[in-house]
């Protein structure tokens, strides 16, 4: 029979290991959960809607940068209206006013949350990191549609406006870019 003190220590160590494992797995699990369910305004990724409805919806575009990000970042068009199921094309503009290359990665969110699972991106600048050279200004495309199933969803059918928000964060330069800026 195990000594009660050793048993308590072993149980405590087991709890610490289980909690550490759960903490480690929580980020990828939460990301997967949000992508599958649309929870938290996470969008889907797709190839295009199979049907276009006569019903329209307004899409609003928002942009911001993280506190330390030196870029200027904005939507080219603040709002558009399109038919549900119709493929939309929007552009965001980024400008690097610094004298050095800066790499960035965009995160996004959709509001209201009920629309997240129905807002589907076909192609997006947010899928990859972006590197802007000193003084460079670029327009970055976003191709998307709103899934027609939003009109039959219990909560989604009441959505008339969707806001897509992006925030750019500065990230480390890719190795090949970093080595170029050192020379």
| H/E element order | HEEEEEEEEEEH
- Give the overall shape, derived from the CA principal axes: flat
Overall average pLDDT: 85
Overall number of strands: 10
CATH class of the largest domain: Mainly Beta
Sheet with the most strands: spatial strand order? 1-7-9-5-3
Q: How far apart are the termini?
A: 67 Å
CATH superfamily of the largest domain: Ctag/Cox11
Number of contiguous helices: 2
Assembly type of the chains comes to: single chain
Give the second-level CATH assignment, the architecture of the largest domain: Sandwich
Description:
Helices cover 23% and strands 38% of the residues. With 183 residues, it is of the alpha+beta class. A 5-stranded mixed beta sheet has the order 1-7-9-5-3, with no helix packed on it. The radius of gyration is 22 Å and the shape is flat. Mean pLDDT is 85; it is low at 40-44.
């Amino acid at each position: 029979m195990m000594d009660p003190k050793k048993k308590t220590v072993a149980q405590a160590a087991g709890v610490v290991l289980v909690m550490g494992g759960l903490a480690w797995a929580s980020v990828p699990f939460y990301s997967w959960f949000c992508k599958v369910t649309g929870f938290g305004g996470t969008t889907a990724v797709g190839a295009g809607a199979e049907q276009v409805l006569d019903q329209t919806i307004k899409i609003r575009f928002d942009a911001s940068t993280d506190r330390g990000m030196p870029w200027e970042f904005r939507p080219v068009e603040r709002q558009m209206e399109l038919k549900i199921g119709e493929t939309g094309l929007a552009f965001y503009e980024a400008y690097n006013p610094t004298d050095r290359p800066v790499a960035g990665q965009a995160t996004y969110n959709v509001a209201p949350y009920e629309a997240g699972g129905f807002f589907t991106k076909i192609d997006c600048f947010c899928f990859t990191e972006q590197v802007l050279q000193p003084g460079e200004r670029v327009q970055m495309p976003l191709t998307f549609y709103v899934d027609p199933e939003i009109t039959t969803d219990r909560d989604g059918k009441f959505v008339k406006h969707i806001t897509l928000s992006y925030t750019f964060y500065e990230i480390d330069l890719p190795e090949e870019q970093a080595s170029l800026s050192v020379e």
